[in-house]
Design a protein that fits this description.
It is built from 4 helices and no strands. Helix 2 packs across helix 4. The chain is globular, with a radius of gyration of 12 Å.
Length: 72
Amino acid sequence: AADEQAMWREGIEGAGGEVRPDQREAFLLKYVEELGYDEMSEITGVGVSALKMRVMRACDRLRILLKEVHSA
C-alpha cells in the first residue's frame, strides 16, 4: 500500500500544472492520505459534494495524462 501511495503521489505531483491545485489537494487527501470525505471537509472547509467533484475531475485528468504518457 505504501508503494501504491508513493506511485499516486508521484503521478499527481508529476502532473503538476496539469491538474488544478484544488483538485490535486482533494486527490491527495483521498487516495494518499486515505481520508474520508467528511474528514477532508473538516480539513479543507470545503463541502463534501465539491470535494467529490474535485477528486473525480483530478482522476479524469490523470487518466488522460497517463494515456498520453503511455502512448508517447
